[in-house]
C-alpha cells in the first residue's frame, strides 16, 4: 500500500539554533524537540528529566473532593465498597490498582468485572443487582459509567452511591453519582485531559492517600499498572501520561508485582520492557481473558501476592492468548475475503462487516487488521444476545466516534474515542447502518486521510547518524501517540549488498548513499514487494527509525524501515 510522507513543519532557524545552543544538542534534535512543543531550556529539562513532582494535584479534578469524602464516609461507616471496571486492559488494571490500594487499609472491598458476552461493555444491570445482593453501598466504576445514567439512578434508588472514574466523552447529562471524575467534563478544569481510566483511578487513590496519610512511595509502586494501561489504550504519551508511564516502566523493569513478573516470563521477554513490549506482548495477554472467557482472570493475576498463584494465572492467560490468536486469524481471513470478493466494498470509503458467528472477543483486533490492508474507518459486527454488537477503529485524523454518533438513530448504544469505539444495534438495522455510515464517512472524510501516512521528523544524511545522536533520541522515550519515535528520511540511496528475504515477507539489506559514505544495515517488516526493484539497483529514498542492535558482544545502529520510495515513483510528500 503506497504511503504519504508528511513532513513536520519546520520552526524558524533562529529558534532551532537558540534551543540547540541552550541545551547543547545539534540542530536536528532541536528541530524535533520544537516540533513537539519543547522550545526552551526549562521545557527540555522537564521533558528529558521527568519527575513525579511534576504531576498535577488530584484535587484539581472536578468532584475529587466529593469522591474522597464519600470513600472516607464508607470506611468510617464500615460500608461495603465494590470496585467495578471494564473488561479490557485499562479497566482491569484500574480495578487491580484501586482494589489493591483500598484493600490494603480496609477489609470491606470487593471487585466486579462484567462478562463481555452476557453483560456487554460498561456498567450492567447484572452488576448493579450483584452489588444489591451483596450489600454494597458504594460502587467505584473505572473506565466506564459516564453514560450509564439509568443504571446509576437504579443504584441510587436502591441506596447505592456511585463514584464514576471515566475518560470517555460524557453525554448531554451526567449520571446522578456522588462524584463524577472525568477530565473530559466541560466543567472540569483539570490541566490534562488524556488520562486513561486506570490513570484516573490512580489520581483518585492519590487524593485518598493525601487525605489519609498514606505514603506517596507506596502509591507509586502501582505505576506499572498505569504504564500498561497507557500503552494498551493508545492514549497520548505526553505531559502527565508520559511522567506516569516513565516511572511505571521503571517499576515494571525493576520491581513489578508478582503477576506482571510472571507474565513477563511467560511472554518470553529477556531484555528491558518498553512500550512496544506492552502493546504487542503483555497487553494482549491481559486482554485475552476477557476476550475468550472472563476478565476477572486478569484481575486475579494483577493482584496476586505470591509467585505460585502468579505463575498459574500467567500460564492461564498465555493459553487464552494462544486461543484468541487462532480466532483472530480465522476471522481476519473471513473478513478480508468478504472485501476482496465485493466490488462495492472495495470501492467504499468505509468498511462495515457483519457475520453472526464471529467471536465477539476479537472483532476489535480484526477491525485493526482490515485497516492494515484497506486503510479506512472500519467496523466489525457480530451477533450477541440477539443484538448486533461491534467494534470500530479509525484512520489517522478521522473521528470515528463522531461518525457513529451521526448514525445514532439506528443504534441502541455506543461510546468510545476518536479512533476506537463500540456500538450495539438491532439486527434488522445492520443493513441501514452500513449504508448510513458509508454515507457519513464519504461526506466528511478528507480523501488524503485514506492514504496511510508516515510522519517524518527530519531529512538527514547518513553522516549524521552516530551513537551520540541515538543516545539522545533514546532519552525522548517512552514513545507512543503524540510522542512517536522520530522518523528520518534520507534520499538518494542504493543497495549496498547482501539483500535477504526473511520468511518470504521481510527484507534485510545494507544501504548507502549513491555518493558513497557510511553503510547501514536496514530491516523492513512485510516489505517483500520492494525486493525486485532493490535488487535491480534502483535509486530510492527511505523513511526509517534508528535503533540499537546487538550481535554477540557487538553493538551497532540499525535502521528500521518505515517506507521506501523509488526515484521513478510518483511522490506523495507533503508538509503538515
- Low-confidence spans: none
In one word, what is the shape? globular
Number of β-strand runs: 20
Task: Assign the CATH topology of the largest domain.
Answer: inorganic pyrophosphatase (n-terminal core)
Oligomer: single chain
The biggest sheet amounts to:
5 strands, parallel
**Could you name the CATH class of the largest domain?**
Alpha Beta
Please compute the radius of gyration using only Cα atoms: 25 Å
Q: How large a portion of the residues is in β-strands, by DSSP E?
A: 15-25%
Helical run tally: 21
Question: What is the correct CATH architecture of the largest domain?
Answer: Alpha-Beta Complex
Structure summarized in a few sentences:
With 576 residues, this protein is α/β, with parallel strands linked by helices. It is built from 21 helices and 20 strands.
Structure description:
By secondary structure, the protein is of the alpha/beta class. It has four domains: 58-247, inorganic pyrophosphatase (n-terminal core); 256-333, no CATH class; 342-450, Diaminopimelate Epimerase, Chain A, domain 1; 453-575, OB fold (Dihydrolipoamide Acetyltransferase, E2P), CATH 2.40.50.460. 42% of the residues lie in helices and 20% in strands. It has a five-stranded parallel beta sheet with strand order 3-2-4-5-6, with helices on both faces. Helix 8 (197-212) packs antiparallel against helix 10 (223-233) and helix 14 (296-303) runs antiparallel to helix 15. The protein starts with a strand and ends with a strand. 43% of the residues are buried.
Amino acid at each position: 500500500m503506497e504511503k504519504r510522507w508528511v513532513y513536520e513543519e519546520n520552526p524558524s532557524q533562529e529558534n532551532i539554533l537558540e534551543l540547540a545552543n541552550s541545551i547543547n544538542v545539534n540542530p536536528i534534535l532541536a528541530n524535533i524537540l520544537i516540533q513537539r512543543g519543547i522550545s526552551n531550556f526549562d521545557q527540555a529539562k522537564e521533558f528529558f528529566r521527568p519527575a513525579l513532582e511534576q504531576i498535577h494535584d488530584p484535587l484539581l479534578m472536578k468532584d475529587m473532593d466529593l469522591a474522597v469524602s464519600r470513600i472516607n464516609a464508607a470506611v468510617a461507616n464500615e460500608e461495603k465498597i465494590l470496585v467495578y471496571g471494564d473488561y479490557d486492559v485499562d479497566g482491569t488494571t484500574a480495578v487491580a490498582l484501586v482494589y489493591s490500594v483500598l484493600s490494603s487499609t480496609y477489609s470491606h472491598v470487593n471487585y466486579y468485572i462484567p462478562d463481555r458476552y452476557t453483560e456487554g461493555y460498561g456498567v450492567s444491570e447484572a452488576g448493579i443487582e450483584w452489588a444489591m445482593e451483596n450489600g454494597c453501598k458504594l460502587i467505584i466504576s473505572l473506565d466506564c459509567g459516564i453514560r450509564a445514567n439509568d443504571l446509576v439512578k437504579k443504584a441510587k434508588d436502591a441506596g447505592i452511591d456511585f463514584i464514576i472514574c471515566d475518560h470517555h466523552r460524557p453525554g448531554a447529562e451526567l449520571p446522578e453519582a456522588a462524584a463524577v471524575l472525568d477530565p473530559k467534563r466541560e466543567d472540569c478544569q483539570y490541566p490534562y485531559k488524556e488520562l486513561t481510566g486506570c490513570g484516573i483511578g490512580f489520581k483518585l487513590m492519590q487524593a485518598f492517600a493525601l487525605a489519609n496519610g498514606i505514603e506517596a512511595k507506596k502509591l507509586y509502586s502501582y505505576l506499572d499498572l498505569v504504564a500498561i494501561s497507557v500503552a494498551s489504550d493508545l492514549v497520548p504519551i505526553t505531559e502527565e501520561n508520559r511522567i506516569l508511564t516513565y516511572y511505571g516502566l521503571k517499576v515494571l523493569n525493576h520491581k513489578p508485582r508478582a503477576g506482571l513478573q510472571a507474565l513477563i516470563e511467560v511472554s518470553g521477554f529477556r531484555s528491558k520492557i518498553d512500550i512496544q513490549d506492552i502493546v504487542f506482548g503483555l497487553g494482549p495477554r491481559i486482554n485475552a481473558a476477557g476476550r475468550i472467557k472472563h476478565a476477572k482472570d486478569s484481575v486475579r493475576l494483577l493482584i496476586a501476592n505470591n509467585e505460585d498463584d502468579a505463575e498459574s494465572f500467567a500460564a492461564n492467560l498465555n493459553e487464552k492468548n494462544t486461543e484468541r490468536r487462532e480466532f483472530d486469524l480465522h476471522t481476519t481471513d473471513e473478513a478480508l475475503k468478504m472485501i476482496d470478493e465485493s466490488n462495492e466494498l472495495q470501492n467504499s470509503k468505509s468498511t462495515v462487516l457483519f457475520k453472526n458467528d464471529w467471536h465477539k472477543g476479537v472483532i476489535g483486533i480484526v477491525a485493526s487488521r482490515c485497516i492494515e490492508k484497506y486503510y479506512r474507518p472500519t467496523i466489525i459486527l457480530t451477533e450477541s444476545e440477539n443484538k448486533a454488537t461491534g467494534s470500530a477503529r479509525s484512520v489517522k485524523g478521522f473521528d470515528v466516534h463522531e461518525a457513529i454518533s451521526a448514525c445514532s438513530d439506528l443504534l441502541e448504544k455506543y461510546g468510545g474515542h476518536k479512533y476506537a469505539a463500540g456500538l450495539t444495534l438491532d439486527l434488522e438495522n445492520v443493513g441501514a447502518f452500513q449504508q448510513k455510515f458509508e454515507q457519513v464517512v464519504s461526506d466528511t472524510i478528507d480523501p488524503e486521510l485514506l492514504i496511510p501516512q508516515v510522519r517524518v521528523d527530519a531529512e538527514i544524511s547518513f553522516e549524521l547518524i552516530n551513537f551520540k545522536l541515538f543516545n539522545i533520541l533514546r532519552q525522548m522515550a517512552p514513545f507512543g501517540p503524540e510522542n512517536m519515535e522520530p522518523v528520518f528520511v534520507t534520499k538518494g540511496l542504493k543497495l549496498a549488498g547482501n539483500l535477504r528475504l526473511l520468511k518470504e515477507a521481510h527484507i534485510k539489506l545494507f544501504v548507502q548513499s549513491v555518493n558513497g559514505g557510511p553503510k547501514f544495515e536496514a530491516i523492513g517488516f512485510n516489505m517483500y514487494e520492494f525486493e525486485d526493484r532493490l535488487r535491480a539497483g534502483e535509486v530510492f529514498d527511505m523513511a526509517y527509525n534508528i535503533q540499537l542492535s546487538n550481535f554477540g558482544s557487538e553493538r551497532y545502529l540499525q535502521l528500521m524501515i518505515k517506507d521506501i520510495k523509488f526515484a521513478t515513483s510518483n511522490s506523495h510528500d507533503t508538509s503538515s
